[in-house]
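Researcher: I need the complex structure. Ligand is flavin mononucleotide. Inputs:
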Amino acid sequence: MSCIVVYLSKHRGNTKKIAQVIAEELKCEAKSADEVKPGELDQYDIIGIGSGIYAFRMDGRLKKLLKGLKDPKSKGIFLFSTSADPDGTKYHKGMKKFVEKLGLKLLGEFNCQGLYEMWFFGKKSWNHGRPNEDDLKKAREFASSIVPSSR
Ligand SMILES: Cc1cc2nc3c(=O)[nH]c(=O)nc-3n(C[C@H](O)[C@H](O)[C@H](O)COP(=O)(O)O)c2cc1C
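Model: Output:
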């Protein structure tokens, strides 16, 4: 099974860290969505899509890449994200609906907390050190549970 991990991680690189350990576990490439060329995703059986949660949703630019797939029904997909909220998978709802409508098979979802720094109304920050080693371990376990042949 060929796979690729595609991410957008514009705040503090939190989701990129998760993308990298998932890709390592699956022995595949992790690429920022900005580097993915049109048509490039058609060659993979499994696509992992991840971003930070921004204003209650995953980054909508990821949808554009998936829209261009020639044969979405032949592919599996998994979603991952980092968020300020400890219960971030609830923000996958829109993306989940979108991929299911395209006909992609949803294989699983992963979320963990990530550092969030806010600069308006004075500097405030949450979730220092996240994702941490435990988050990365859980992301690895997630990867090997959805694609068991990667072990
Ligand atoms: C503009 C902006 C909006 C955000 N909105 C949310 C949100 O609605 N819910 C949430 O849980 N976290 C929110 N966050 C926190 C990010 O999801 C969190 O910091 C995440 O780890 C960022 O990932 P990244 O470093 O990969 O971009 C927001 C962060 C930014 C910068």
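Model: Summary of the prediction. The pocket of flavin mononucleotide is lined by residues 9-15, 52-56, 82-85, 88, 114-116 (CB under 6 Å).
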